[in-house]
Amino acid sequence: MAVLAEIRKRSWLLIGLIAFALLAFLLTPDQFDQIFSKNPNILGKVNGETITREEYSDQLYVLQQQAQQQGQPGTGLEEQAWQMMVQSKLIKQQFEKMGLQMTDDFFYSQLQFDPMFAQNQQNFDEKGNFRLQEIKKQVADLQNSGDLQAYNQWMKTRKAIEYRMMARQLFANITTGITTGKKEAEELMKQRDQLADIDFVKVDYGTFLQKNPIKVTTADLANYIKQYPLTYKADPSVNLGVVYFPSMPSKADEDATMKEINNLLSGQSDASGVAENFQNTTNDSMFVMLNSELPFDSRYLSENQLPPAIREWVKTASKGQINGPYREQDVLVLTKLLDKKPSDSVLSKHILIAYEGSERSTATRKKEEAKKIADSLYAVIKGNPAAFAEGLKLSDEPNAVERNGSVGWVTPSSPFDPAYMKFLLNNPKGATNVVESAFGYHIINIEDKKSGTMGYKLAHIVKGLTASDATETEVDKNARRFIQQVQGKTFNDFANLAKKSNYNFSNAKSVKRFDGQIQGLGTPKDSEIISWAYDKKRKKGDTEFFVVEGSGDRVVVIMNGKQEKGLADPESVREQIEPIVKNQLAAKKIIEKMKSGNATGLAQVAKLFGTTQQSGQVNLLNPQIAGAMEPKVAGAAFGVAKGKTSNPVEGATGVYVLVKKSETVNKQPGDIKQMTESISGQNASMFGQAFLKSLQDNADIKDYRIEVWDKGFQ
To answer: Where is the PpiC domain (predicted)?
Structure first.
């Protein structure tokens, strides 16, 4: 009855529970998740301002494009993109707090200072003026072109530029207020010029630990971490044990590839006579196309552009001679010398008549009109070469008149338009003609030619050294046997068995959800392995088997634990902090031994630890003593009275006991004005990153990516 009475009192609660249960029954799991879980399109918040999946993806796209342009891999950039989004939001918030706004006028007024535009000379005219109106027109034309993909790409790029502009304006405004006081400069000059002459004894940590080994426990590491909570603040991560089974070619695989490439070299007789081979072929480019894993390259290459293995050989080789097979990393190569000749350098000048739609063009004339102008100019110049200078006034190339239309000296390996280069290479000095390129119509005049370094035209037969099906099967067998052996075992069992079997073992101690790559592994499968590790069902001791498509490699992984947000797991940072903690523990033992041995003087300390007394000079601004930077020792040297023995000083490399003999002043060059300017410059250069870190440390940053990432756009 008492229970019924309580229920009657709280009937509203009962009704709510029944309604919730009915709702759960009627909804599908996906619908239920959408109602009660976080919005999958919002990846996080910075001081309440959202970071959407779309803008994060745009930032990631920009980074991937930059990496691609620089020849760098476009993977593993997810965490960098997140950090940039967080910092961009913080900068934007501070920018707006200062009363500033990112308007169209502000954007275009600052565009010429952004590195993307400032470093491209084509954005400036011959007088150095920024071509702002032309750039605005290009953006407007792009917007009206109907090419949504290209326009959206520009808008993503513009967003990244806007954040850079806000950061530059914000830091410029704040650093203007950074000053250095006279007292500060005077104090630093004093610290620079004052010297303390000391006698001291150093008990070196390394020497002490050799005789008195210390084991650093997990508790020791944890105690150290607690002293520096901001330094060792950790985001969620997982600890993974990884065994990598590379599918490498065996000796038999290499022998088979060698036999195959030798057969291409010498050929075999068949029923119709001698088969075509690399020696007797009459069409080298076709033979390469049919038999090599790399395409034929018709260019003449300089010695420095050739593989190191053949650089000396080509100098004395005759046409048709073959070198190899030789090994270059993971391929076998046959190389035939087809031709060699000096690589001419050509000096030329030109008049460019561009048209609407040609590359980098701002011209509005049609192609037919451009061709007509070019032909007319050529006819005049052909009859009177001196008219070339007058024709330059019509050139669409910036600064054409000032440079006399010259493009300088070029060689066959110069990055140049193919049509322009073809004319230079195939015509003699003095030749003039009209040539069409991607940039428009050129009236080109070859001013001079001179022989350069030798160029070599080569044909290569390349065969990769890859694992055979039999070898890959053996790799798969070993990996599957290993994962069966470690089922239900501990991480230590996993690691010990891998090492005992001479397998490639690594321990990635702090893998974040969006690292993209696993330290010590680095395969295309890394992202999938990380996703597996962050599955909600994943628990310590779970193992999994992965196949790396394309390479045939196998990976076996064990989950060794999860790090929640908070202080770092001591074992995950052991390699980083163990030397520091070990030195601290050693210092404690050294000082205890001094006290118990009643060693109060330098001679007593030296005798107790089997070391010697030394002398030296130290100052506060550059506290170097005994080959190490020791600020605490410098502080003690100026803090102790003359002739007195200091207390033991726990330094960076050892425990010191010292006696100050005297203080002197060694006046260094530079007055207070120079010191003030130097300090202000240093402070300004360090301010940006320090300010940004301060904003980030004190911001309310919420990261929902682990919870919502796999749900995708909704």
So the answer is: 343-448, 570-662
557, two tokens? 């992984």
Pairing of strands 624-625, 613-618: unpaired
- Are the CB atoms for 476 and 468 separated by under 8 Å? no
Confidence of residue 613 (pLDDT cuts 50, 70, 90): very high
Do residues 291 and 463 touch, judged by C-beta distance below 8 A?
no
Report helix, strand and coil shares of the chain as percent, to nearest 5. Answer: 50, 20, 30
Give every CB contact of residue 416 below 8 A, 6+ residues apart in sequence.
410
Rounded Cα distance, 460 and 412, in Å: 20
Nearest 5°: CA angle at 394, between 393 and 398?
A: 75
Alpha-carbon separation of residue 607 from 203, 549, 591, 649 (angstroms):
11, 65, 14, 18
The CA distances from residue 312 to 302, 303, 335, 467, in Å, are: 12, 9, 13, 32
Q: Which residues pair with 606 in a beta bridge?
A: none
Task: Give every strand in the sheet of 613-618, ordered side by side.
Answer: 613-618, 194-204, 654-665, 649-650
- Location of structure tokens 């100026």: 638
| CA distances from residue 470 to 44, 253, 282, 387, 477 in whole angstroms, order as listed | 49, 9, 37, 73, 11
Measured CA to CA in angstroms, residue 705 lies from 531, 615, 627, 712 at distances of 12, 58, 48, 10
Counting beta carbons within 10 angstroms of the beta carbon of residue 387, is it exposed (0 to 12), middle (13 to 18) or buried (19 or more)? middle
Least confident of 75-79, 110-114, 321-325: 75-79
User: Quick check: bond before 325 cis, omega within 30?
Assistant: yes
- Look up residue 533 and give its DSSP letter: H
Strand partners, 197: 617, 662
User: How do residues 71-96 score in pLDDT, each as one tens digit?
Assistant: 777 777 888 888 889 999 999 999 98
Mean pLDDT of the 291-316 span? 89
Q: Which helix (H) or strand (E) holds 491?
A: helix 491-500
C-alpha atoms less than 13 angstroms from C-alpha of 652 in its C-beta half-sphere: 12
516 near 522, Cβ under 8 Å? Answer: no
Query: Using DSSP, how many helices (H) and how many strands (E) does the chain show?
Result: 26, 24
Q: Which residues pair with 584 in a beta bridge?
A: none
